[in-house]
C-alpha cells in the first residue's frame, strides 16, 4: 500500500499550459513538449484536467464523449504519444473523470431528450411538485439546480451548470458505463484517476426542500458512496498500482477516513477543501477577508491526525484550477514572493499525504488582478458577477471580490519565458497572460539557483530519500503560537521538525528539545536550532535528526 507515498503529482490545466500549434489554446502536444521540464522538477504523475470532447461551457468539465479527445486539444495519437513519452521518463498520467454529470451534448442526454426511456433513466428527470421545482436547492454555479423541459413537463437535475446534467448512479447501466470508461483508459496505459466531485454521486432516495441551507446536506457524502467507490475499485482500478484521488466537496473527515482508509479498498487519497475556506466570511465564498490563521492550523492538525489514525491518506495542496493562487492568498506576492512561496511549499510538502503542485506554483505565479469583467472567462465568475450586481453590490466591490476569489486567477497561461505571451503561444491566448510574466517565468526560475523552483525540486527529492517525510507519523507542535505552524514527522530511524512563519514580521519560538538537529531545507541562510529562536518574515526551516 505504500507505492504512492513518496510520489508527487503535478496538475496540468491543458488549455493554459502550452500551445504547440499556436492557436491561443493549450494542447496535448504542448504537454509532451514540456516533459523534460517536468522531469527536471522531479514529479512522478501528471493529473491532466479534462480534454475529452466537450462544448467547453465549463472548460471541459462538461464531457460529451468520455472516450475521445476534443479536437481543440489534439488527437488520440497525440495522447498515446504523451503516455509513451511520459513512461520513458517515469512520468505517468492521471485522468480527470467527471462522473457526477455529463454534458447535455452527450449522446445519452440527447437520446433522453428524444424521449428514450432507457436514457431518461441515466439522469434525474422529475415531475413538478406543487406546480414548481422538485426542490429549492441552489446550484454550485448560482441559480436553481432544476431545468424545466416543456416537452416532458419535467425538470432535470444539474448541481452545476444547466448544461451539466447529473447522472443517475442508482441505475446499474450508468455504473457499468462508468466502469467501462475507466477500463478503456486503463487499457491505454493510464495509471491513475482524479474523480471530480465524486462524493456528490450518491443522491437521496427522496427529494425534499432544504430550509436551512442550499441543499448540499441532502446530496453530499450520500448513503451509497462507499458502495459506488468499492464498485469502481473492484471492477477497474483495484488490481494494480493505480493512484486514485477523489475530489470531496463539503465533505466530513468521518467519510474521508473511509474513502481513503487502507482497509476499505476505495480510493488512494482524498482532496478536501476546508483549509481553503478560512478566508470566507460567514462560510460565503464571494466575500473578502484575511485568512484566519488559527482556523487554518486547527484544520491541518485535525485532518492530519484524524486521517493518520485510520491509515487514511490526504492529498496535500494549496492550489488547483478552481482556487486563487496561494502566493497571493496566504503569502505576500509583492514584498516576500520568494520567501513566502517557499514557506508555503515546505508547509505542504512536509506533511503526511501526497503533495500536488498546480502548474506555475513552482515558479511563484500569482493572482491575475483583472480589473474588468471582459477579462474573465469562467462560467462561475460570470454568473456571480450578475448575482452580486442584483444583490446591490457596487462594481468596485464586485471587482475586488472577483480579483480575490475568481477561479480564473489559476487559469492564466503558464509563464515560460519573457517572450510574447509568456512563451505560451504566439497567438492571442484564450485568457489574458499575467503581466508579471516578464520577471515571473520558467526560464528565469531555472537560471536562479535560489528560485522557488529549486526549492520545490529539493522538496520532491527529500520525499524520496526520507521515510520520515513519506511515511512518518505526524505530531503537531506550538499549537498556541499566533504566527507559526509547526510539526514533527517521526519515523524509526529519523525525525523531522518543521517551523513555518506565516507572516511578514519577525517572531520568536520556544523549543524544548533541540538536541542533534541539523538543517534539512530552509528559505533563508541556514540557522542552527536553539531553544529560543527568532524567525524572519515568512521564514521556514525543517530540521532533521537521526
Ligand atoms: O469542482 C467542484 C467544485 O465544487 C467547484 O466547482 C466549486 O464549487 C467552486 O470552485 C466553488 O467556488 C469541480 C471541478 O474542479 C470544477 O472545475 C468544475 O467546474 C466542477 O467540478 C464541475 O464539474
Explain the overall architecture.
With 546 residues, this protein is of the alpha/beta class. Helix content is 29%, strand content 18%. The mean pLDDT is 98. A hairpin with a 2-residue loop joins β17 and β18 (494-501). The two termini are 25 Å apart. The chain has 17 helices and 22 strands. α12 packs parallel to α16 and α13 (379-390) packs antiparallel against α14 (395-405). The radius of gyration is 23 Å and the shape is globular. The protein has helices spanning 28-33, 35-41, 76-88, 107-113, 117-120, 172-187, 216-219, 225-237, 253-259, 293-309, 326-329, 337-349, 379-390, 395-405, 442-447, 452-465, 467-470, and strands at 9-12, 45-48, 52-53, 65-69, 92-97, 101-103, 125-126, 146-149, 154-157, 164-166, 192-195, 243-247, 269-271, 315-316, 354-358, 473-477, 484-491, 494-501, 507-510, 518-522, 532-535, 540-545. The strands form six sheets. An eight-stranded parallel beta sheet has the order 13-12-11-5-2-1-15-14. It binds 1-O-alpha-D-glucopyranosyl-D-fructose (TEU). 1-O-alpha-D-glucopyranosyl-D-fructose binds next to loops.
How are the SSEs placed, and which strands pair?
Blueprint (H helix, E strand, L loop, with lengths): L8 E4 L15 H6 L1 H7 L3 E4 L3 E2 L11 E5 L6 H13 L3 E6 L3 E3 L3 H7 L3 H4 L4 E2 L19 E4 L4 E4 L6 E3 L5 H16 L4 E4 L20 H4 L5 H13 L5 E5 L5 H7 L9 E3 L21 H17 L5 E2 L9 H4 L7 H13 L4 E5 L20 H12 L4 H11 L36 H6 L4 H14 L1 H4 L2 E5 L6 E8 L2 E8 L5 E4 L7 E5 L9 E4 L4 E6 L1
Parallel strand pairs: 1-2, 1-15, 2-5, 5-11, 11-12, 12-13, 14-15
Antiparallel strand pairs: 3-4, 6-10, 7-9, 8-9, 16-17, 17-18, 18-22, 19-21, 20-22
Helix pairs in contact: 6-8, 12-16, 13-14
The structure holds 1-O-alpha-D-glucopyranosyl-D-fructose.
The site of 1-O-alpha-D-glucopyranosyl-D-fructose (TEU) has 13 residues, from loops.
Amino acid at each position: 500500500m505504500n507505492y504512492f507515498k513518496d510520489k508527487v503529482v503535478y496538475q496540468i490545466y491543458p488549455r493554459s499550459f502550452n500551445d504547440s500549434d499556436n492557436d491561443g489554446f493549450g494542447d496535448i502536444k504542448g504537454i509532451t513538449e514540456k516533459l523534460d521540464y517536468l522531469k527536471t522538477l522531479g514529479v512522478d504523475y501528471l493529473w491532466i484536467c479534462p480534454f475529452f470532447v466537450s462544448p467547453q461551457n465549463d472548460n471541459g468539465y462538461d464531457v460529451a464523449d468520455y472516450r475521445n479527445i476534443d479536437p481543440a486539444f489534439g488527437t488520440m495519437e497525440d495522447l498515446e504519444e504523451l503516455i509513451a513519452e511520459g513512461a520513458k521518463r517515469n512520468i505517468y498520467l492521471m485522468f480527470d473523470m467527471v462522473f457526477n454529470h455529463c454534458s447535455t451534448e452527450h449522446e445519452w442526454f440527447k437520446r433522453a431528450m428524444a424521449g428514450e426511456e432507457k436514457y431518461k433513466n441515466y439522469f434525474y428527470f422529475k415531475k413538478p411538485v406543487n406546480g414548481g421545482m422538485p426542490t429549492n436547492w441552489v446550484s454550485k454555479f448560482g441559480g436553481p439546480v432544476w431545468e424545466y423541459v416543456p416537452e416532458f413537463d419535467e425538470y432535470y437535475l444539474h448541481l452545476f451548470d444547466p448544461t451539466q446534467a447529473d447522472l443517475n448512479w442508482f441505475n446499474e447501466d450508468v455504473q457499468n458505463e462508468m466502469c467501462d470508461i475507466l477500463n478503456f483508459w486503463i487499457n491505454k496505459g493510464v495509471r491513475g484517476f482524479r474523480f471530480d466531485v465524486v462524493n456528490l454521486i450518491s443522491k437521496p432516495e427522496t427529494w425534499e426542500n432544504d430550509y436551512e441551507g442550499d441543499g448540499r446536506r441532502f446530496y453530499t457524502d450520500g448513503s451509497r458512496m462507499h458502495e459506488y467507490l468499492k464498485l469502481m475499485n473492484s471492477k477497474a482500478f483495484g488490481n494494480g498500482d493505480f493512484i486514485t484521488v477523489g475530489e470531496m466537496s463539503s465533505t466530513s473527515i468521518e467519510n474521508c477516513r473511509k474513502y481513503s482508509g487502507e482497509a476499505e479498498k476505495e480510493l488512494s487519497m482524498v482532496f478536501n477543501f476546508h483549509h481553503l475556506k478560512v478566508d470566507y466570511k460567514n462560510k460565503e465564498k464571494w466575500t473578502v477577508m484575511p485568512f484566519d490563521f488559527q482556523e487554518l492550523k486547527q484544520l491541518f492538525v485535525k485532518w492530519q491526525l484524524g486521517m493518520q489514525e485510520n491509515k487514511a491518506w490526504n492529498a496535500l495542496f494549496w492550489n488547483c484550477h478552481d482556487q486563487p493562487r496561494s502566493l497571493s492568498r496566504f503569502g505576500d506576492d509583492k514584498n516576500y514572493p520568494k520567501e513566502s512561496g517557499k514557506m508555503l511549499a515546505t508547509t505542504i510538502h512536509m506533511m503526511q499525504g501526497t503533495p500536488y503542485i498546480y502548474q506555475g506554483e513552482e515558479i511563484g505565479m500569482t493572482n491575475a488582478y483583472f480589473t474588468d469583467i471582459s477579462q474573465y472567462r469562467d462560467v462561475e465568475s460570470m454568473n456571480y458577477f450578475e448575482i452580486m450586481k442584483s444583490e446591490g453590490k457596487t462594481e468596485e466591490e464586485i471587482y475586488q471580490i472577483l480579483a480575490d476569489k475568481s477561479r480564473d486567477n489559476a487559469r492564466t497561461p503558464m509563464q515560460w519565458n519573457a517572450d510574447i505571451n509568456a512563451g505560451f503561444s504566439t497567438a492571442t491566448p484564450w485568457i489574458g497572460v499575467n503581466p508579471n510574466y516578464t520577471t515571473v517565468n520558467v526560464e528565469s526560475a531555472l537560471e536562479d539557483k535560489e528560485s522557488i523552483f529549486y526549492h520545490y525540486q529539493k522538496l520532491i527529492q527529500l520525499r524520496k530519500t526520507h521515510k520520515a517525510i513519506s511515511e512518518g507519523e505526524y505530531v503537531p507542535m506550538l499549537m498556541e503560537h499566533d504566527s507559526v505552524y509547526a510539526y514533527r514527522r517521526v519515523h524509526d530511524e529519523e525525525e523531522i521538525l518543521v517551523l513555518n512563519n506565516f507572516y511578514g514580521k519577525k517572531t520568536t519560538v520556544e523549543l524544548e528539545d533541540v538536541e542533534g538537529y541539523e538543517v534539512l531545507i530552509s528559505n533563508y541562510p541556514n540557522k542552527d536550532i536553539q531553544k529560543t529562536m527568532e524567525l524572519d518574515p515568512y521564514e521556514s526551516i525543517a530540521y532533521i535528526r537521526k
